[in-house]
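Case study: Nitroreductase A.
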Amino acid sequence: MTSTIETILSHRSIRKFTDQAIDAAQLESIVQAGLAASSSSMLQVVSIIRVTDKEKRQRLAHLAGDQPYVASAAEFLVFCMDYQRHFTINPQVNPDFTELTLIGAVDCGIMAQNCLLAAESLGLGGVYIGGLRSSAQEVDELLNLPQHSAVLFGLCLGHPDQAPQLKPRLPAKVIVHENQYQPLNLDDINEYDKTMQAYYASRSSNQKQSSWSQEVTSKLAGECRPHIKGYLNGKGLAKR
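Here is what the predicted structure looks like once written out:
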């Protein structure tokens, strides 16, 4: 097993950080790793906003659902899909196709994961902050995003001040299909539910009695940020 694979397999979300800053050279390496990520048709439709202003950090922590580590992490990066630079180059660009919005979301995810893996390889830790989308318009205005760009998520980075357990994932036999989509074997899910219940019971904090199936059902059975479509449309995205 290579050190790269070991880094990937040892991933865990870090939400508690020391006061130590990230070295400038390390941050540059993290950003360069992100810039090296794959890009659909080499469109390069991602912008990263590094938020260093303390007041803005506090405001973003609140807008993200009162997540204090947004303010306390050494670095906070906000990943945005960005077609404004392309529109500026030539106004004939049509950023309003839904396919382009999907490309922007995919490219942001790929770039951010490169950044996080690079950080973890340097002994740092981090956690993604999708909660920014709960107040997407307010975050957008705080960061002064132009038309044809939209906030997607944030990434906290810093020196870990905790060592949480690895969270079990669904087994490969549930995720990986061969040649065609295979029907779900609920026995596999039942076994995974037992694994997750044991994991939750072993945690010293935030213990849960529910299973993974119950957790995701609760998440997916109700509304999920219904304002997002209007937000994207208002930025000239995903209109057709």
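For the exam, be able to explain this: The chain has two domains: 3-165+224-234, 172-216.
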